[in-house]
User: Which sequence fits this backbone?
């Protein structure tokens, strides 16, 4: 009996696609008409992923909450999760401010000599976000968590309303008891089907990665990079520091090696980096964190919530970019003003978490509020895609670690299961 030959593994295919995308993008740089033929291949992959995100969140969260069984437990998960998110996001913003003050990436740059990008679509989103029904973005967000139409919320991919409905639905299954068992079995069956679909969609990932990288390099151009190279290095360096030192310290407090976590997530980080989308790896993260020792109900609750409230990479980038623009225009911010900037970013990043183009939208709103030349954002749009890739990686690591932190806080982190999974994974 002949042995069936094993093909190239998916992670290897993604690496090959990434390299080929860079090469093709470099060769086709400046040929904007060709982007319209390459970009759709990447968009198809993102659409496929977005198609399954909401069903996965709804089914997995409803099943998990039904297993947890009571409002008290869910409430405890909720306040611990949000408290952790707020603390770690504040650390990210503060670290960005510190790095921007130390390295001053905007000093010595003449804004008139930088190529100007188009921020009109982000300005439109910022104007829409600035319209507040209750005069306060945070209140708007809290009220908006409760959907008036869950089907519409699902169709728009609004995770917070979906999470609220899923938790409520799961509590209903638990309260009804045996009569709701068929509903629970149906959801479990649907979830199995969705995960099968996920596995099939991931086979298309290399094509999506190739398209995204090719278009990025075709659009990017060395002319936009050189003047902003210091900004890129400060952002990337601060993000590496945040992962290794800040998240590494948090992981160590939970008796977890951050490098073990990074090794387990290497495929997801590569995919998230290539596509600049955390959604592409949501199903895989949930699966791996459960295998790494976090209970299913905690993973199902924390990860989707983190996609809205725990954007560490985005928060870190926003604080650096805000000070970069201030430095570029020669605006000196006092310590008090920088503390106000920190508090403003804390509020605006939470209040607009679901707005498309979150980082740029939040920055436009924040800079306008503080009188810091929001038009300066047009000058860094040229490298925003590269920075977006980096901050997406930080977001993924931060959300993955958060499930382990909450599991540890609940005294439910299974270290033996995690160790066995890691040993099996690295073999």
Assistant:
């Amino acid at each position: 009996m002949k042995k069936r030959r094993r093909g190239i593994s998916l992670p290897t295919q993604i690496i090959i696609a990434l390299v080929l995308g860079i090469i093709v993008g470099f060769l086709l740089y400046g040929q904007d008409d060709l982007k319209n033929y390459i970009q759709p291949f990447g968009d198809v992959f993102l659409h496929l992923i977005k198609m399954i995100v909401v069903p996965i969140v709804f089914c997995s969260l409803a099943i998990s909450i039904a297993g947890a069984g009571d409002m008290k437990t869910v409430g405890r998960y909720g306040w611990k999760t949000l408290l952790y998110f707020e603390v770690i996001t504040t650390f990210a913003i503060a670290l960005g401010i510190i790095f921007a003050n130390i390295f001053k990436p905007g000093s010595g740059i003449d804004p008139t000599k930088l190529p100007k990008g188009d921020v009109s679509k982000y300005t439109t989103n910022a104007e829409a976000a600035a319209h507040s029904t209750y005069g306060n973005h945070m209140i708007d967000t809290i009220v908006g968590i409760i959907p008036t139409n869950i089907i519409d919320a699902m169709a728009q991919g609004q995770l917070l309303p979906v999470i609220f409905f899923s938790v409520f639905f799961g509590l209903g299954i638990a309260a009804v008891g045996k009569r709701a068992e068929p509903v629970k079995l149906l959801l479990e069956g649907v979830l199995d089907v969705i995960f099968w679909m996920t596995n099939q969609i991931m086979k298309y990932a290399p094509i999506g990665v190739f398209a995204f990288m090719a278009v990025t390099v075709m659009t990017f151009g060395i002319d936009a990079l050189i003047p902003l190279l210091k900004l890129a290095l400060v952002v990337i360096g601060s993000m590496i520091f945040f992962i290794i030192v800040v998240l590494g310290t948090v992981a160590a407090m939970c008796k977890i090696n951050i490098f073990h976590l990074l090794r387990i997530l290497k495929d997801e980080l590569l995919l998230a980096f290539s596509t600049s989308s955390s959604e592409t790896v949501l199903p895989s993260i949930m699966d791996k964190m459960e295998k790494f020792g976090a209970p299913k109900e905690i993973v199902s609750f924390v990860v989707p919530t983190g996609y809205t409230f725990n954007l560490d990479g985005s928060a870190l980038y926003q604080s650096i970019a805000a000070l970069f623009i201030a430095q570029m225009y020669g605006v000196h911010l006092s310590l008090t003003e920088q503390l106000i900037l920190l508090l403003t970013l804390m509020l605006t990043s939470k209040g607009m978490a679901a707005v498309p183009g979150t980082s740029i939208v939040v920055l436009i709103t924040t800079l306008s509020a503080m009188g810091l030349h929001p038009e300066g954002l047009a000058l860094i749009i040229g490298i925003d895609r590269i920075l977006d890739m980096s901050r997406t990686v930080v977001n993924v690591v931060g959300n993955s670690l958060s499930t382990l932190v909450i599991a540890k806080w609940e005294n439910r982190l299974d270290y033996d299961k995690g160790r066995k999974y890691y040993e099996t994974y690295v073999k």
User: Anything to note?
Assistant: The mean pLDDT is 82. The chain has 20 helices and no strands.
